[in-house]
Amino acid sequence: MNMRTLHVEEPKLTFGLGQTALHPKDGLFLYGPAAPHAAREIRIGAIGSAAGLERLSRWMAAVRGFIPAFNDKAHHSPFPGVQAAFGIAWPDKPHQSIVLPDGELEKRIRYDDKHRRVYDTVDLLVNELLEFKRRSDFRPDLWIVVLPEDVSKYGRPKSIVPKGQRIPTPQPADAVQKRKSADAFLFPEDEAARLPYQYELNVHNQLKARLLEAEVVTQVIRETTLTPHDFLDKFGGLIRGVQDPATTAWNLITTLYYKVAGPPWRLTNVRPDVCYIGLVYKEDPSRAASQRVCCGAQMFLATGEGVVFRGHLGPWDSVRAGEHHLDEETAERIIAEVVESYALEHKRAPAEVFIHGRTRFTPDEWRGFQRGAKGVGILSAIQIQKSKDIKFFRDKTEEVEATLNLPRGTALILDDRTAYLWTAGFVPRLQTYPGWEVPNPYRISVQRGDADIETVLSDVLGLTKLNFNACIYGDGQPVTLRFADAIGEILTAGHNLEKLKPLPFKHYI
């Protein structure tokens, strides 16, 4: 097959009343979401300090109304208000609030023991949320967790609290010397003391991980995102760069709606019973070599629904640095779980299954996938890698004055199994290329199976429009890979997460 170029047509999205549009913001403004929320209202719970909850209420009141666009450029859109865009009643404050003791989060996040610093901060949030769930009949659709900027600043793996601000950790545990031990301790208090050292040093990921078993859905928001002008430096500038208010509203409300009511838009003209699986790998150096890597799977449908399947621990080593590969048995088990979950929901096996990964697929993995995909009509394994091997440009013309970048959706097909696809590039609707650097393509290879390369390219471009963590024209990555690293971090951030049942994607973002 000769090398050739083509332009993959921009996938359309379906919104309310079956109407279509290319841009989520256009479709939501004109037609509303594809799946209107049955209750017509979102019940919001919130947890944070009194100051943080006051800032949240201010923001919730603001997004009830019109927020002008940042400027008159085509890629900036005004926010029309929650009810106007999403068709739901939106409160001007949370229905239920948990007020944390003033300064308690800021105190804990300054403990001099970095593991206790993160664990105890998350502990305060988790305990309050679980206690509320235990004693109250009110069930919010979602909890908004409002974090002070210091928690985000010092609640990360490489964060360092300035020496003069550190607070002695209460009741220092002797587990510091024992935390690498895999042996069980005789006394429960020893196990409890060791527990903080078994979690990742990341407030966001640890919070998500520790709430998975209770199935509490959360949205973590920093105070500086809600009211950025409350936080100025000595020169009068913002202490943290944030998006403009209209863009922030579009992105956050889209995410909140997705977590409560489901996908606000869907891909148009999708093939029935198609299932996409993204494989997730994350190393955990604290574990023994035989269980050092966690592999999980994300299942996505063209309708936008997603499910994350628990991690499978193992060595998963490869002769190539940065690559991990499953043995045949585990590959079979992972795909079987996905197919069985799909069949349980839809009363039939998927007609097509595409397995997406960043690395090549070994013969052992492929045999396992084939055995696990019982009843599946077409099975394919697709390698998707960011590539810097090739750059494309186009001449500047009078018709296109704004950019020299090629259009999004440009593809260079090398043969019937391999192609380059530019998921970023000039977008006519936006009249610009929404990026700073010359876009790099993805190298897409049909590693196993007999999928048509043009169909694969069209599917991958469509999957870039299913990132419901934002409201954008198209993401640079397909959703099967977009959150792989973040999900892997959450799967390894917690304790005994390999025992979790499959949970909707909304629990992880």
TrEMBL record:
Single annotated GO MF: nucleic acid binding
InterPro entries the UniProt entry points to: RNaseH-like_sf, RNaseH_sf
Source organism (scientific name): Terricaulis silvestris
Listed name of the protein: Piwi domain-containing protein
Domain of life: Bacteria
Lineage: Bacteria, Pseudomonadati, Pseudomonadota, Alphaproteobacteria, Caulobacterales
